[in-house]
Design brief:
The strands form four sheets. Strands 1, 4, 5, 6, 7, 8 and 11 form a seven-stranded antiparallel sheet that branches. The protein has four helices and 17 strands. The protein starts with a strand and ends in a 7-residue tail after the last strand. Helices cover 17% and strands 46% of the residues. By secondary structure, the protein is of the alpha+beta class.
Amino acid sequence: MLLDYVITLHIIGAKKALYLVSTSEIRGEIVYMDWHIVYKGKPSRGSLRDNLEKAGIPYFIPTQVVKQMEGDRMVEKTETVLTNLIFIQTDDDIMPLIQKVDGLKTPFINHATGKPATVSDDELQRFKRVLEARSIHAEFLPDAYRRFENCPKVRVKAGDFEGFEGRVFRIRHDRKLIISLDNMAIAISGIHHTLLEVVLSESEA
């Protein structure tokens, strides 16, 4: 079966409303709130999306559209990249929010710190660039990013992802770039090896 992966995004909320809730003003400066990674469950009423919208809480769901040949025609199917996780944006403690919204379960824990995982708005914007690229494919790994710390460290030296850093690791006979979202490992395929350069440690430099 021929598969052609196309990554798309799903961000809920009207743009104006999203901007209003996504920023807070502190001492005259606009500060973008962090995104929390939370396990989702089945709400007792309605849908999680409806419950978040009613509460006015911005959330982010990465999905991918899989194009595949069925017989003599191409069909598209939308699949959620994270089947049991969701990104929630807030500058408050995440636990009261989880208790407030029906369908949110527990925070994803960064095992390196023992604390709920958070992603800065800058990091999420960078991650969106990965998801929006049609030439690459991203997948979340069950392992923490620190598992790959002994793998070669590289930097993308040119192209759309210039400046990205991560570790190189072979998965299913395919060399992938492993990047981190607060210790959550994400494998990226489709970046040509000629665009990568080795990053030396201070002792090696």
